[in-house]
Specification:
mainly alpha, DNA polymerase, domain 1
Length: 256
């Protein structure tokens, strides 16, 4: 019975130790492979942080498992010591059997103590790895927060640049604002050279309907409607003001 128990304990312990070693090796290789990725971008840092958190949970689970196993070994060690202390004295006629039993119990005690020491060493390694992983996770969170702040700063700078380069809406022209009081008569503005249906529509939308209005434009009006028409110095180049004066004179018989 003792031999079978000894064999089972040794086999289970060996499998547990090997499993722990392979698990730690796998975690280390995984971290080496994943560590080569791009961790400078926010997305890469988020992935690294998620991997670190997952590894942290796995290490904590493994630590709990090792602690439970160590507790089981300590209980087995105490039980073996109690059995050794409570073992009835063997008959004097069988000293060899007594010595053999004592040696067997002592070997079992030594084996259990060695296994306990191994588990304590593995637990210490897991604690160190756990601390290192937690530190890396904290550092990754700091990098991620810094990257997000940089992203927000760049977005704000981009909005400011867009606001600087967006042209301001032209102010209403004094001529357009008072078109009804200047002249209620509407003329065919397409008679002006360079004014088609599209430009006439833009002028009408901004309150210009008569030759008289164009003929009375000043420099501010020319700049204002140049922005609306969108053809640079076309108004001056094609002399819209002079054309409007002549057309008004021809149509209404009065000069401006």
């Amino acid at each position: 019975m003792d031999a079978m128990l000894y064999f089972l304990v040794n086999s289970a312990t060996l499998l547990l130790v090997l499993g722990t070693l392979f698990f730690l090796l796998g975690l280390w290789l995984g971290s080496m492979v994943k560590g080569k990725g791009d961790a400078r971008s926010p997305r890469g840092q988020e992935r690294e942080l998620a991997n670190l958190r997952s590894r942290l949970q796995a290490l904590q689970a493994e630590q709990d498992k090792q602690q439970r196993h160590a507790s089981e070994l300590e209980r087995s060690l105490r039980q073996a010591r109690e059995e050794n202390a409570a073992a009835p004295p063997a008959p004097v006629a069988r000293p060899d059997a007594v010595d053999a039993e004592l040696e067997s119990l002592q070997r079992r005690l030594n084996q259990l103590q060695a296994e306990l020491d191994i588990e304590k060493g593995s637990n210490a390694t897991l604690n160190a790895d756990l601390s290192a992983t937690a530190a890396r996770a904290e550092e990754a969170e700091k990098k991620l927060a810094a990257a997000q702040r940089d992203r927000d700063t760049l977005r704000e700078e981009l909005r400011e640049m867009e606001a600087q380069f967006t042209p301001a809406a032209p102010e209403p022209s004094p001529i357009a604002a008072t078109s009804s009081s200047i002249d209620a008569r509407a003329d065919d503005l397409t008679q002006l050279k360079g004014v088609g249906e599209v430009i006439q529509g833009k002028l009408n939308d901004n309150g210009v309907h008569a030759f008289r209005q164009i003929a009375q434009w000043n420099d501010a009006d020319i700049e204002h409607f140049s922005q609306i028409v969108g053809f640079g110095d076309r108004i001056q180049r094609e002399d819209w003001i002079g054309q409007a004066r002549r057309l008004h004179q021809e149509k209404y018989g009065e000069g401006i």
